[in-house]
Write a structure and sequence with these properties.
- The chain is α/β, with parallel strands linked by helices.
- The chain has four domains: 2-95, Alpha-Beta Plaits (2-Layer Sandwich), CATH 3.30.70; 102-322 and 517-562, Rossmann fold (3-Layer(aba) Sandwich); 338-504, Succinyl-CoA synthetase domains (Rossmann fold); 591-993, v583 fold.
- The protein is built from 33 helices and 40 strands.
- Residues 342-495 form the ATP-citrate synthase/succinyl-CoA ligase C-terminal domain.
Length: 1000
């Protein structure tokens, strides 16, 4: 049976998850398992593995997906425990590292202002956009990422060239910059040889042989495997050749290429003949007969290294390089035996296929199913090919595929020799020789029992400086019975001699280059700077790649990358298109947040709602959130409607009230449509008193009902006589008294001042308003006392204000509404101007699209519950009070009120800090009017940018009360809730359409 576990917003790089999959699969009771991110490509892998479920279909690219095939559900718990421990170990290691971690480009460039390179190891489907971003920031790029579309590679390499930058890759497995290893790289001595190579293990093989011969490398510039295709034109290779020609410490240039397009090969050769330095070039698949001018043409990777070292040390280049083998062949295999090459290195596999084909006259086949050679029983397979690595770690990391292939090969009775490579270096398996040892020894035992002659011949690509220990790897293989040679070419030669054949290398002389030499281009200042400085790298992807850079003197920071826009390709494209208008949009947003920042809200009065909201004439009720029909309202909002009907005298009983509400006699209007806001249900009727807040900047005015206090209250859906009586008292006493007091204050009550003071005293203005409520009481009490009214009413009003800790919440809501309605008059940009919910949907509006609503199903809050209640009792989120978050307080300013965090289920101070730091990532700016001492006196966040929300997947966190889902039960707890991402995605798409951007 299949069991699925989705860990939302838990992004991990693919290699870590592949290794985790291997660990999980070893657990007893697990038939089959897979742990991957929920990308479309990975969902296809789940399908092909018969591990696809409905839950997998719903996962996003930022969700970690675990699928387990088991007969015992208890095994799933073990899998989850293993996964949690694995990820915890990664986290502990990360915390112990000295490397700086960032989560976006802005942070990355701030943390490493002198960065000159970005190293990418992220899924290829997303790599092109990020590479382009790095190029636009003036960074050279090293792209370990593969599966980048060819048209993107061409475009990006052309862009890099025009900017004077190097784009190394895509699918660039290894590199050395200023003697510092990059990605899957061996550690070699510094020296005077510079390599430009179109492949990974080609560079590794040559550089490690150079090191063992006593030479050293200064640069090894990878180009990616497609650079010498005709469509690409060798852009990176040509620019790198020019760079090394002008790089004084480089005395010898080495070129390594898989079979290139003839046109590009000829262009590269023309360029090489124009350089002043000696060059060694190998184009795999070619068997050169001569050297040309200053370009020495090699046949094998070993010969390439040997010539380069001789040139670097000032020695004469020999006519032939063919050193004796380590193993003496005394007996050859009988006729009919074949060779099986099981390679983790693609270039090493290509070299094996080339030499076997040449010597044994076996024609190379197309690279089908990973095979480079598959004819007459002879096979050479690149186990690093996509067909083997899709959803699995590379064979340099994970031995499983090769173990299975060894077993498969030895079961073929024609197999006389298995060829293996063991590739060492950073990123590779910590002890591949020992990992393969059991399979090797089992293969020998299988052959012995069958009384067959059988050999395994191997080479170790590495140096004594590599973390795996070169000598130990060689010794382990020899102890297992493997014949080990010093290079891949020698291993192949030994295999051929065991077959009774011999590789012959004819002597090569130097012939003059007869053609006219081309003029070399000038080196770009950026390439010159890169080649003459220590790399400072923004590592985007695999954290392990920072280790070698830091160890050998480079500087690296870790960009904790995750897919933009949740990996949604349509939204990514829209964001990229909007980025082309970034300056214009940013200017518009600055105007909008300027209005938010410059707002001057004053509390002017308290009046009956009908006196300022004419739409309330008749049987009309205002409600919270975007538009909603009565039948779709949840219990608390319907209960509030009943209470309002009873309060207004439209009905004498609940039954009569519900009949009128259900029959359509009562009209409903969102509060937001009439310059008003309302808490929870938001139900406002004609005779309810409302706070009047005026934004003195232009007279924009907003309204909100007053806080009813605690206990059974209308806003939570209660409608008993007690509730109606309190509303009546507020209409007859509280409202008129406060109205008279406020009218005596010349110019009204300055609310900015109260907010600024209260935020320093621990209020965040949604769940905690005690400081602001007391300041308000302090401001109005003297005036109330001076009023010529009944002393009993004075005392009742003051007592009520003193006992109502949340009284200021409703004032804050009116403040927020007055601010956003002033800002909304600028109908430009991507700043969010409304956040609200009605129990059914969450609604968002943005500045550039005016009154248009963008909605999605609302979430249910998470938090703490009063005694006797659980999440089963909770109503979906409800109310206009998220206007506080819209203007940067409430959940957006959690750090301002660490005392309330546990009450809303957010933990302690660190969690509050984390929330505010997270909310800052989706904000345009900070509000200098409302500074927060516990946040190092930074201002509260200001202006939620819908682009940033969609890009990061971070949605506003809202502090909220939790209402019982049954009308009249009231508040059952408090907590936090996230705005649904879909609202913001819809708004972004609509905004892009408004700019004429195609969104399909």
């Amino acid at each position: 049976m299949l069991y699925t576990v989705i860990k939302q917003n838990s992004y991990q790089d693919s290699i870590n998850l592949m290794l985790l999959t291997n660990e999980v699969s070893t657990l007893n009771g697990v038939k089959k398992s897979q742990v991957m991110m929920g990308t479309d490509a990975n969902k296809d892998i789940f399908r092909s593995a018969d591990l696809y479920t409905d839950e997998v279909d719903k996962a996003t690219p930022n969700d970690m997906v675990i699928v387990v095939d088991t007969d015992d559900q208890a095994v799933v718990d073990q899998v989850i425990e293993k996964a949690d421990q694995f990820l915890t170990d990664l986290s502990v290691k990360k915390e112990s590292d000295s490397v700086t971690n960032v989560s976006n480009w802005k942070e990355a460039l701030a943390a490493l202002p002198n960065a000159n390179m970005a190293l990418f190891s992220i899924p290829g489907i997303y790599a092109a956009d990020e590479i382009e971003h790095a190029l636009d920031e003036g960074l050279h790029v090293f792209s370990f990422s593969d599966n980048v579309a060819l048209e993107d590679e061409i475009r990006l390499k052309q862009k890099a060239h025009e900017k004077g930058l190097l784009l190394m890759g895509p699918d660039c497995g290894t590199g050395i910059i200023s003697s510092i290893p990059m990605a899957f790289t061996n550690v070699v001595n510094p020296g005077n040889i510079g390599i430009v190579g179109a492949s990974g293990t080609g560079i590794q093989e040559v550089s490690t042989i150079v090191e063992r011969l006593g030479g050293g490398m200064v640069h090894a510039i990878g180009t990616g495997g497609r650079d010498l295709r005709e469509e690409v034109g060798g852009i990176t290779m040509k620019d790198a050749i020019v760079g090394l020609e002008h790089h004084d410490p480089t005395d010898v240039i080495v070129i390594i290429s898989k079979p290139p397009a003839k046109k590009v090969r000829d262009e590269v050769m023309e360029l090489l003949h124009a350089v002043s330095k000696p060059v060694v070039a190998i184009f795999l698949g070619e068997k050169p007969e001569n050297h040309e001018g200053n370009v020495y043409l090699a046949h094998t990777l070993e010969e390439t290294a040997q010539i380069a070292v001789d040139l670097a040390q000032g020695n004469e280049v020999k006519e032939r390089y063919l050193e004796p083998l380590s193993s003496e062949v005394t007996k050859t295999l009988p006729e009919g035996k074949t060779v099986k090459g099981l390679y983790s290195g693609g270039t090493l596999a290509n070299e094996a296929a080339m030499l076997i084909s040449e010597v044994l006259n076996v024609e190379e086949s197309k690279k089908e199913e990973g095979y480079i050679l598959n004819a007459k029983g002879f096979q050479v397979v690149d186990l690093g090919d996509d067909v083997y690595t899709q959803g699995r770690p590379h064979p340099m990391i994970d031995p499983e595929v090769r173990i299975n292939k060894i077993k498969e090969a030895v079961e073929d009775e024609t197999t006389g020799i298995i060829l293996l490579d063991i590739v060492l270096g950073y990123g590779s398996h910590p002890d591949m020789a020992n990992a393969l040892r059991p399979a090797i020894e089992e293969a020998f035992e299988t052959a012995r029992k069958a009384d067959r002659d059988f050999y395994i011949v191997a080479t170790v690509c590495g140096t004594k400086y590599d973390p795996q220990d070169y000598d130990k790897s060689v010794e382990v293989l020899k102890e297992s019975g493997v014949l080990v040679e010093d290079s891949n070419a020698r291993a192949i030669r030994l295999a051929l001699e065991l077959m009774g054949a011999e590789l012959v290398e004819e002597p090569k002389g130097v012939v003059a280059y007869e053609k006219e030499k081309v003029t070399l281009p000038e080196i770009s200042p950026q390439v010159d700077a890169l080649l003459n400085s220590t790399p400072q790298v923004i590592n985007v992807g695999l954290e392990s790649f920072t280790e070698s850079i830091e160890t050998y003197g480079g500087k690296a920071i870790q960009f904790d990358w995750r897919p933009v826009a949740g990996g949604n390709q349509k939204l990514i494209r829209i964001l990229n298109e909007l980025n082309k208008h970034a300056e214009e949009i940013d200017q518009a947003n600055e105007k909008v947040i300027g209005r938010l920042r410059d707002s001057q809200p004053f509390l002017m009065d308290v009046v009956p709602a009908i006196s300022v909201i004419p739409e309330l004439d008749g049987k009309v009720l205002l409600h919270a959130g975007p538009p909603i029909k009565y039948e779709n309202m949840t219990g608390p909002m319907q209960g509030s409607c009943v209470g309002a009907s009873l309060f207004e005298g439209w009905a004498d009983s609940e039954e009569e009230a519900r009949r009128q509400l259900e029959s359509g006699e009562v009209e409903f209007i969102p509060c937001h449509h009439v310059n008003a806001v309302g808490p929870m249900g938001g139900i406002t009727s004609a005779n309810m008193p409302v706070l009047v807040v005026e934004n003195k900047q232009d007279g924009t005015t907003a309204y909100c009902t007053m806080n009813e206090g605690i206990g059974k209250v209308l806003r939570f859906g209660a409608y008993s006589q007690e509730v109606v009586d309190r509303l009546t008292w507020m209409k007859d006493v509280l409202g008129p008294v406060l109205g008279k007091a406020l009218r005596k204050l010349e110019g009204g009550l300055n609310l900015n001042v109260i907010v600024a003071r209260a935020i320093t005293m621990g209020d965040e203005f949604h769940q905690r308003n005690i400081a602001a409520s007391l300041i308000f009481l302090k401001e109005v009490t003297p005036t109330i006392i001076e009023l010529d009214i009944d002393q009993k009413d004075k005392k009742a009003v003051i007592d009520f204000l003193a006992q109502t800790d949340q009284f200021f919440l409703n004032i804050m809501m009116a403040i927020g509404k007055a601010m956003v309605d002033y800002a909304r008059k600028i109908k430009e940009g991507t700043v969010v101007t409304t956040l609200t919910r009605n129990g059914e949907n969450f609604g968002v509006r943005i500045a550039g699209l005016g009154d248009e609503w963008f909605t999605a199903p609302v979430n249910t809050p998470n938090g703490l519950y009063f005694t006797g209640f659980t999440e089963e009792d909770a109503n979906p989120d409800i109310g206009d009070s998220a206007i506080t978050e819209t203007v940067g307080v409430g959940g957006m300013a959690m750090i301002a009120a660490p005392g309330v965090t546990r009450f809303v289920g957010a933990g302690g101070f660190q969690e509050a800090l984390d929330v505010s730091n997270e909310m800052e990532k989706i904000a345009v700016s900070l509000n200098p009017n409302w500074t927060i001492p516990t946040w190092d006196f930074k201002g509260s966040v200001l202006g939620i940018d819908v682009r940033k929300v969609v890009e990061t997947g971070i949605t506003p966190l809202i502090n909220t009360g939790i209402a019982h889902k049954i009308a009249g039960k009231g508040q059952v707890g408090a907590g936090t809730v996230r705005a649904p991402l879909a609202c913001f995605e819809k708004a972004l798409v609509a905004y892009a359409e408004s700019l004429g951007i195609s969104v399909e």
